[in-house]
Amino acid sequence: MDTTTAAELEQRNKARTAVTRDNRWKLFRTHIDMYILLLPGLLLLLLFKYTPMYGILIAFQDFNIFDGISGSKWVGLEQFRKLIRSEEFLQVFANTLLISLYKIVLLFPVPILVAPLLNEVRRMLFKRTVQTIIYLPHFLSWVIISGLFINILSPSGGLVNQLIQWFGAKPVSFLLDNEWFRSVVVFTAGWKETGWNAIIFIAAIAGIEQEQYEAVAIDGAGRTKQMLYITLPGILPTIVLMFILRIGDLLEAGTEQILTLYNPVVYQTGDVIGTYVYRVGLGKMDYSFSTAVGLFNSVVGFLLIVLGNMLSRKLAAKKYMVGGSDHAQKNARRHRLGPLFLRRSPASGRFHSACRLPTCYRRRSARNGRLSRARWVFSRLASSCKP
Fold first, then answer.
1. What pLDDT score does 379 carry?
2. Considering the chain, what is the average pLDDT of its residues?
3. Of residues 22 and 263, more confidently modeled
4. Helices (DSSP H) in the chain: which residue ranges?
5. Residue 84, φ and ψ in degrees, nearest 5
6. What is the DSSP letter of 51?
7. 53 pLDDT exceeds 90?
8. Spatial separation of the C-alpha atoms in residues 329 and 321, rounded to whole Å
9. DSSP letter assigned to residue 364
10. 5, 182, 227, 306 — which has fewest CB within 10 A?
11. Could you tell me which of 73, 71, 75, 69 has the C-alpha nearest to residue 57?
12. pLDDT digits (tens, 9 = 90+) for 72-84
């Protein structure tokens, strides 16, 4: 029978808290040089990120540039009511969502495909040449790229329209046509950023252990199966992370890009939240309304990041290692096998280590009837996962 009194429990908790505090102070003194190196970054974050947040008050005021923030009239949520009732803003909001969704659906998978393909190239000169070519556009500003595409797509003398006329068709005003403008925006964004975004996935591929490739190569897996069953599952956490970050920028459809490409003719399909804030805030001098639009954009982006993080955790809980036996997970860690080998069986709903592996990875050798080391590991893991 437990006879511990409340006083003893309180004394133990105080002692535990004191030990924790001492450990933290000891850790701080041990790595004090690292904390000193962290100070400039924290100061910059405080100065340029948190200090300007004082200006959020403008969204709740009828701001007058001569009276300042402290002297302007407080109107509460009036600017947000005006925002919701504005038909122009609703059109801008719809344009932002459409362009962002087009970029996610059409452009997000491209670097994921480019990275494994570049990783499979064995001629280093060719590989580095291709990487350099697709990386270079990232380092050009949108002003330069916009000028380049404006000339290429020009209806009078542009290269694309010359080809169209050569085939007997009429020239197309790509940047003056509401039906074509969004396509131009998505294409130019992909042309500029695909190579740069692929760097992250190439780095993730470099972190995959070569023993996994060697093991499946012994079992007769070709380059395609290695890519499907080792490379892509190996970079899946990076893909999920990048997708979550991209969801957070859902309402950032590329303000600088569109600002340098669009014109009043295509406001109906090309005007997004960022360009709208620029036009209203600086063009019409309506600082309070433009600040309210920007604050709305930030809050929605934050909520989207939280939602994406929750969905990714639920997805990971269903597909990876959650619910598997402790013995199976220990064996997986011992042999350095990733989540690929601990997926839920679609037939039984139970976790089996090798349920995702192709049949050729689980057969005995036809030559000597014995299991290779890789097959032996998979068999042991599969047996340890059985209920």
1. 44
2. 78
3. 263
4. 6-30, 32-45, 68-71, 78-85, 87-107, 109-120, 124-135, 142-152, 159-166, 178-206, 210-218, 223-226, 232-234, 236-248, 255-261, 267-270, 273-278, 287-319, 326-334, 373-385
5. -70, -35
6. G
7. no
8. 7
9. P
10. 5
11. 69
12. 889 888 888 888 8
* Beta carbons of 72 and 61 less than 8 angstroms apart: yes
Q: Spell out the residues 6+ positions from residue 321 whose beta carbon is closer than 8 angstroms to its own.
A: 329, 332, 339, 342, 351
d(CA 132, CA 118): 12
Q: Global pTM?
A: 0.69
Q: Residue 98 has what pLDDT? A: 93
Q: Which tokens is 334 given?
A: 């011992």
Tokens (6 digits) for 152: 């290429």
Nearest in space to 291 (alpha carbons), one of 276, 303, 312, 305: 276
Query: Cα–Cα distance between 352 and 370 in angstroms, integer?
Result: 22
CA distance 227 to 191: 25
Alpha-carbon gap, residue 121 to 41, rounded angstroms: 39
Q: Is the pLDDT of residue 97 over 80?
A: yes
> Coil, helix or strand for 91?
helix
